Amino acid sequence: MIFEWLIIGGGIHGVHIAARLIDEADVKAENIRIVDPGKNLLERWKSCTETTGMGFLRSPSVHNLATEPMSLMALAESLDVPKSELFAPPYNRPSLQFFNEHCARVISRFNLDTLHVQGRAINAKMTCDYSQIELCSGEEIFAKNVVLAMGASEQPFWPKWANNGGDRVHHIFDPKFQGMPTKRESIAVVGGGISAGQVALRLQKQGNEVHLVSRHEIREHQFDSEPGWLGPRYMNGFSKEKDFNIRRKMITHARHRGSLPPDVNNSLQQAIICDQITRHECGISNLKLVADGICLEMNDGSTLQVERILLATGFATNRPGGGIC
C-alpha cells in the first residue's frame, strides 16, 4: 500500500501536522502514518519536560496541537477548575499537566495513536511516484509525501570536557536519562538556559546543594524567539529566501538560546539571593574524578568539587540532511 502522507517523528510537530492534514486538508486518517521509536506519541516531549520539573510552558495558550488556536482556552472554560491552576501570566501560559491533557484529547479526537508505527526510519529511496522508507526493523513504508519532523531531541549536546566523567555526569535530555539523585547530594547543573534554571530549582526544592554553572550572564527573554516570527514582519523575508542553508542560519540567529523567561529567572534569582543555589559565571576547561566526586577546573583558575554533574546544555544543532549549523 502507498500512503498519501508519512510523518517521521511523533513529537509536538509531527502530531500537529497529522491533525492539520486530517482536519484542514481533508486527508483520510487511513492514508497517514506516523513513524516514531517511542511506545507512544509525544514520548520524548513528556520525558524531557518531566525531567526539567517544568510547571508552566514558556509559550502562550494559542500555541497548542489543535487546529484551532483558542482550543486550549475553550477546554479550560469547560472545566470547573480555577484559571490560576491552568495558566500562568503573562499570555495565559498553560501548565504542563493541562497542556498534556489537551494533547491527549487532540490525539484521541483524530485517532492519531492508531496511525503510529513504532520504529525508526534509517533509509529512504525516491522514485517519480513515491518514497520508499526503510525502518530499522526491515519494514518498508511507501508514501507519496514524506514530512521530516524529527527535531533534535535525540542529539543532546555534550561539551568535550564532560566526556570523561563516567557515571557521575549525565545529560538531562539523554533518551536513557537516569541521573536524578536519590539522596541529598552536591550537584553542578551546567547550562544557562531555561532547562538549566528549571532543573536547578527542582534540585534545590528537593534539598540538594546546587551549583548553577554557565559561561555567560543570565539572559532574560519572555520567549525563545521574537513574536514577530509568527507573522509577516519576519516571515515575509524568510519565505522569500530559497536557499535552505541560509534559511537555517536565519532560524539559528533568531533563537534566544541560553535564555530564561521572567518567571523562571525571578525564582532562580530569589534562590541565589537566599544562598539556596550558588551561581558560577565561568566556563569549564576540564574535570577530574576524585575519591568522593568530581573536581571541575574552571577557565578562571578556580575549582568546584561536587558529587554529580547534570548537563542542561541543550541539543546539537544537527539538521536532517545537513551538518552542524
- CATH class division of the largest domain: Alpha Beta
Low-confidence stretches: 321-325
3D shape: globular
- In CATH, the topology of the largest domain is named FAD/NAD(P)-binding domain
Please compute the radius of gyration using only Cα atoms.
22 Å
Provide the structure class.
alpha/beta
CATH architecture of the largest domain: 3-Layer(bba) Sandwich
Largest sheet: 6 strands, mixed
CATH-level-4 superfamily name of the largest domain: FAD/NAD(P)-binding domain
Distance between the termini: 37 Å
How many domains, as an integer?
Answer: 2
Number of DSSP-assigned strands: 18
Report the average pLDDT across residues: 94
Widest sheet, order of strands: 5-2-1-8-7-6
The ordered string of helix (H) and strand (E) elements is EHEHHHEEHEEEEEEHEEHHEHEEEEE
Q: Proportion of β residues?
A: 25-35%
- Count helical runs: 9
Q: What percentage of residues falls in helices of 4 or more residues?
A: 25-40%
